[in-house]
User: Fold this.
Amino acid sequence: MYLLGDYAFKVGEIETYEHVFKNARNNLYAEYIHCIVLERLEEEIGYKPKRIRVNQIHNLEVYISSPDSYDNFSERILKTDNIHQILSIKKNM
Assistant:
């Protein structure tokens, strides 16, 4: 059985998120992040996790063409309240 948050943050799959944040001047910005979810942090039963740990993919086209040799990742921890899922891709293409 899947809980509510299980669909949005599947460990090991490529996800694309819109990350909305405020800068020091209180202006809203959005960035789009292609990443592989590594871990769900601060899990709540029946709800989505509060934070996730991801490997951000900096060039999705290169990663998809040769995932085994791709090594341009940045590990990040994202607050799930600040992100919205755009796209999910199965890792084993």
